[in-house]
């Protein structure tokens, strides 16, 4: 069987994509692309056997590429996804899938036109062994009925907004670029349907900088079951990068700290169970590896296109609420 050819656009986090492909014997990286010459030169030294191009369009059009793996800046994702699907290529795209609802709808219709094609996105927290353990606890009803979740995407890397490309492109969203991970995690953990959101944002941390969009967004999400979640994208926090997640159920409480805690009693003398299962504990390129395995029929796809559209739909509702200043119903794409 010929190997599945993978082309990777963008050699920042895209380098991790290379590692994911290299672990698969039935796939190979056939092309790499970066519009930065110094990145291409470095890659040439590291991967002398792989063809490296400057333009994403050349990579997508190359017949040696069956799967396009997109790790370019957020503002390029939509065009690259669209072109790849039009040319009959499977797509693995870094989050966010795209920046606007009309783009997501277009991607949806292109996938419907060619149902053989598959799309997934690097919503990686699902692969964390600690969160997989937590999902199992929830499924076994160890926490009882869930009524509240607090999740925060604590970025702790403000300079990426004030100095890097995130502050230079026309639009960067901390919801689509950060909170998306927490929202996806909550939807996957609970399998609950979000129905309405209210959200506010501010840009106090990036005042007087090149960044002109909210750097902090706080949202309240109402679910069909009555569950209520608060999710924030907090890019300016003076804290190391962390995914804060507190889950409150009628029978227990889970707190994700360095070592997570599971409380089964409110008695102050009853110690919580300490959970030091690795977090994030995810191998580089792991979800791309899973995506490729699923294309080869070896395993189920961890993040399906339905999952991607569901998560993006909630993010877009939050974006709309921040802009319009009132509660917004989640409209599923
Ligand atoms: N899933 C995750 O946890 C995760 C983590 C980090 C970054 N990301 C995503 O990955 C993407 C890249 O972020 P990064 O942190 O790697 O940035 P980065 O600046 O470290 O690297 C991006 C690279 O892509 C190149 N590039 C950008 N647009 C290009 C284009 N259109 N054509 C060719 N080359 C292009 C740049 O020159 C750069 O070398 C973003 O969408 C980001 O949201 C996801």
Q: What does it look like?
A:
This protein has 333 residues and is an alpha/beta fold. It is built from ten helices and 15 strands. It is globular, with a radius of gyration of 20 Å. It starts with a strand and ends with a strand. Bound molecules: nicotinamide-adenine-dinucleotide. Nicotinamide-adenine-dinucleotide binds next to helix 4.
List its salient traits.
globular, binds nicotinamide-adenine-dinucleotide, alpha/beta, 10 helices, 6-stranded parallel β-sheet, 333 residues, 9-stranded mixed β-sheet
User: Percent range for helical residues?
Assistant: 25-40%
Approximately how much beta-strand content do the residues carry? 15-25%
Biggest sheet descriptor: 9 strands, mixed
Q: What is the CA-based Rg, rounded?
A: 20 Å
Using the alpha-carbon principal axes, give the shape: globular
Number of strand elements: 15
Distance between the termini: 36 Å
Q: Helix- and strand-based class?
A: alpha/beta
Ranges where pLDDT stays below 50 over 5 or more residues in a row are none
Q: Which molecules other than protein and nucleic acid are bound?
A: nicotinamide-adenine-dinucleotide
Topology:
Elements: E1 4-9, H1 14-22, E2 27-33, H2 37-46, E3 51-53, H3 56-61, E4 67-70, H4 74-86, E5 90-93, H5 101-113, E6 119-121, H6 129-139, E7 146-154, H7 159-162, H8 174-190, E8 194-202, E9 216-223, E10 228-234, E11 242-249, E12 253-255, E13 260-263, E14 273-275, H9 286-295, H10 305-324, E15 328-329
Parallel strand pairs: 1-2, 1-4, 2-3, 4-5, 5-6, 7-10
Antiparallel strand pairs: 7-11, 8-9, 8-15, 9-10, 11-12, 12-13, 13-14
